[in-house]
Amino acid sequence: MNEQADDNCIEIKEAKRITDEDIKKMIQKYANVKLATELQNMERIKREAIIRRVKEVDGVSTRQIARVTGVSQTVISKV
């Protein structure tokens, strides 16, 4: 009855989240703009490069980027 169990348990990692304000500051820095919503009016190639860079940050979701920038979530997910 005293058998040792070799059960493998799933490790639960805490979700790392970044605030909208931090994302706005990040975009302002990367794009050299005053407002994150100015991303909407940029050339497509420049806008995609900035979005790619922001998406690489751990804890940022496409939905959050869409909310902060006003760019469609579909567009962001395709980048």
What is the H-and-E element order? HHHH
Number of domains as seen in the coordinates: 1
Please state the average pLDDT score.
Answer: 86
Shape: elongated
How would a textbook summarize the main sheet?
Answer: none
Write structural notes for this entry.
The chain has 79 residues and is mainly alpha-helical. The protein has one domain (20-78). The chain has four helices and no strands. Helix 1 (20-31) packs across helix 2 (44-55). The radius of gyration is 19 Å and the shape is elongated. The N and C termini lie far apart (56 Å). The mean pLDDT is 86.
For the structure shown, list the relevant keywords.
elongated; single chain; 48% helix; mainly alpha; 79 residues
Summarize the structure.
The chain has 79 residues and is an all-alpha fold. It has four helices and no strands.
Strand-helix topology:
Layout: H1 20-31, H2 44-55, H3 62-69, H4 73-78
Helix pairs in contact: 1-2
